[in-house]
Write a structure and sequence with these properties.
By secondary structure, this protein is of the alpha+beta class. It contains three helices and three strands; from the N terminus they run βαααββ.
Length: 72
Amino acid sequence: MIIRRFEEKDAQEVSALIAKTLRVTNSKDYSAEYIENDVKQFSPEGVIKRAGWTHFYVVCDDDTIVGCGAIG
């Protein structure tokens, strides 16, 4: 596994990963409406914007992004 800085080309994959994670892990605690509102915030454009004001990292297993995180 490799941890590296986010690159704009990662935006679509990171957005999809975040959306999937929010829908799976938060479904027992939050309404679908609440989760989908959060998902909208993490569109590819939203991820790029967030990466502009945070230290945004991705975790890669070969060529697949399996995790991400930001330090603001």
